[in-house]
Amino acid sequence: MLRVGLTGSIAVGKSHVCEVFRELGCHVLDADQTAREVVKPGTKGLSRIVEAFGNGVLQASGELDRKKLGAIVFADNDKRERLNAIVHPLVIEAQDEWIRGVEDRDPNGIAIIDAALMIESGGYKRFEKLIVVWCEPDIQLQRLIKRDGLSKEDAVARIRAQMPQEEKKRFADHLIDTSAGFDDTREQVKMVFAELKGA
User: Which residues have C-beta within 8 Å of that of residue 196, sequence separation ≥ 6?
Assistant: First the structure.
């Protein structure tokens, strides 16, 4: 089975690319979804976060208040690193378990894990191939403003908080440029899929 990492910056169209890979028969796991699952009520992830950041990061229901926690860690690098040190190992453990399950069911399949911080965390090294999804910076900015209802300043700050796209592209085995929209992107995904099948 082929293990593939997929990454890209905020608002570049990773979700659409993953959707097309799913349609083509790939197994795709969204790391954000996994990150939410490992901090659900009753998990060791959530209890470690409460230990590190206090009960103030919980909603009345006992679930993690992602906005409150985000406000704490977005402004403080040390706290963000502490959060990542709790969540990342749990996410990797869950991903590895998922990959083993896919391999049992479909030994000749392609398993793709989509994670925004795969390069920054070093997690990309666990994969045989790395796909980087990107788009032109002005298009990325417009998409982010539209998608999240942000001011231009806030959107620029979010983009600047991430590794630059040009740097991410240097790590890629395959690049998918979503600048020209859905149909063009779909054709590129099909080409990359054909190359992965031949790998």
Answer: 2, 4, 110, 129, 174
Per DSSP, helices labelled H in 1-136 are 14-23, 31-37, 44-53, 66-74, 77-105
Are 157 and 185 in the same domain? Answer: yes
Residue 139 to residue 150: CA distance in whole angstroms: 15
SS3 117: coil
Same domain as 122, residue 198 = yes
Identify which of 36, 6, 33 has the alpha carbon closest to the alpha carbon of residue 21: 6
Greatest distance between any 2 Cα atoms in the chain: 51
What's the mean per-residue pLDDT of the chain?
Answer: 94
Q: What is the mean pLDDT of residues 93-104?
A: 95
Task: For residue 85, give the CATH number of its domain.
Answer: 3.40.50.300
Q: How many residues are there in the chain?
A: 199
What confidence score (pLDDT) does residue 112 get? 98
- Tell whether the model's pLDDT for residue 75 goes beyond 80: no
Q: Looking at residue 113, what DSSP letter applies?
A: E
Distance CA 150, CA 37 (A): 27
Q: What's the pTM? A: 0.87
Confidence of residue 31 (pLDDT cuts 50, 70, 90): confident
- As a whole number of angstroms, the distance between CA 28 and CA 11 comes to 18
